[in-house]
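Cont'd.
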Amino acid sequence: MKMADAINQYHSLLTVLPRLGIPLGFGEKSVEQLCAEHHVSLTLFTLISRVYIEQDYYPSIEELRQCPMTDILHYLVSSHKDYLEYKLPHIEQHFNTLLDPMDKKYSTLIVNFYKEFKKEMVKHFQYEEEEVFPYMRQMLSENETDNGEHHHKSAFQQQHDDIEDTLNDLTNLLLKYIPAEVSSSERVDMLLDMYALSNDIGKHAMMEDRILLPYIQYLESQSHD
Amino acid sequence: MIKIAIAEPSQMLRSGLVSLLRDVPDSEVVFSTDNLNALFSRLPALHADILILNPLLFDYSHRATLRAEFDNYPELRLIGLVTAYLESQQLHQFSGIIELNDDLQRVKSTINQVVNTLQSDSDEPDTDPLSDREKEVLICLSKGLKNNEIADTLNISVHTVITHRKNIVRKTGIKSVAALTVYAILNNLIEEKDII
């Protein structure tokens, strides 16, 4: 399949490319060609794309075993970086213009709520990058010795539900309850960005729930044998 | 016209309820009884929308599953008339709860809420703004009160507080207390100074 056709059909994949190090401007090249050119595993690309496109996709352990897991970790870390260094600052820019004409006491309130949300998100990413991912890397490299640390899994799931809920709350506040006089085109832009972010974070969470966690569990069960 | 049936063993409560319900617009009490036999023999022909039922009419072993007794009436909404302590599992079977010390206003709003669920089941979007009671619960939440503290302050059961909270989340689309607080301030329900 041509990469351009894939992206035209499934826009949301657009955010995936830079995280995998595939730049735009690829002309007529196919997905296979581009993956080979940029040293991205085709299985990995397919796996990520399917999570983005198919709502009910739960890859089997067999599929996961075919996939280079360290690359998935790398992809997840690039996503974190993308959220924090690009997506969120972009939303913050909208905020500045949008909330400027509002009564200070209301705008501060929303900004503070947003800051709390961001703090939560940074904390969650840190936890993953400092605890969960190293744990998984260790399991991948050893794969034989079990160090008995199984406490990561449950906490892992709860946290990004919170992040998605908070983002959803923020979106509803902006959509429904900020007074009408606030610049509407800026507001629409901002909401579109937030829906896109929320969709992307949802997929990100799915990747952790449907790929990372099952694989960690699989590795743990292997090391018990 | 909303058709209401009542099943309650106490004659006094039954008559009291019937007279309260006269003031609920667009409603009519079509049947009232003190026992289940009469209820189940009449129910097929009544086409009632709402049954106000005292769960104590069912013996203990059937109380937690009493909703199943009404499986033949999927459209029928049950409102529990609670006169004694009941486990929350039993209460969850009801679409609404009326308690002994509820005033007319409260009974009306419970019935209205249940009627609204009738409508929302038919895919009608819920476009009602928050009710006065829901606003009161929201204000308490914003001030940092817990469910049991809200129940005490407003003189309602914890179960009712939870029902209100569910409705608030459903209507606003907002889940977290922090965001609900922002909502409350934006809508001038509370002042910012009240929350710290």
